[in-house]
Specification:
Blueprint: H1 18-27, E1 47-53, E2 56-64, E3 67-72, E4 87-89, E5 93-94, E6 101-102, E7 108-110
Antiparallel strand pairs: 1-2, 1-4, 2-3, 5-6, 6-7
Bound molecules: FE2/S2 (inorganic) cluster.
């Protein structure tokens, strides 16, 4: 008799309640490494993958031939999601709400209505811009 590939008690399927799901999202996923994509999927500078885990959305971007960055997929101004698509290639990261742009390292490039940022430090050109993961 062959062994099952996955133990039946490994994930308690019968007990996978909303509360169990909430606990996994709160206590497991934020503390373990995630496989967002394969390096080959973002081979060219500007290639990106929008990795979603639970309620989080992370942009994984090849910012240079030898550098890959990951950012929360959220504009630091008003929290609009920056990219809705699954993957693609871009030369800068554009926010569709107020047209702010960030370079591939997440630094602000264009900040329209700067006075509306009310001192948000991520709106400062010297600041990091998009929150890195
Ligand atoms: S919400 Fe992104 S620039 Fe305002």
């Amino acid at each position: 008799m062959s062994q099952p590939i996955v133990r039946r008690d490994f994930v308690p399927g019968s007990d996978y309640s909303p509360e169990f799901h909430r606990l996994v999202m709160e206590r497991v996923w934020p503390k373990v490494w995630q496989v967002a994509c394969r390096v080959e999927e973002i081979a060219e500078v500007g290639d990106y993958v929008n990795y979603e885990i639970g309620r989080e959305s992370i942009l994984v971007v090849r910012s240079a031939q030898d550098k890959i960055r990951a950012f929360y997929n959220v504009c630091p101004h008003r929290g609009r999601r920056l990219r809705d698509d699954e993957r693609g290639n871009l030369s800068s990261i554009f926010c569709g709400y107020h047209a702010g742009t960030f370079d591939l390292n997440g630094k602000p490039v264009t900040i329209p209505e700067r006075e509306d940022w009310h001192g948000c430090p991520r709106g400062n050109r010297e600041a990091r811009g998009i929150m890195a993961r």
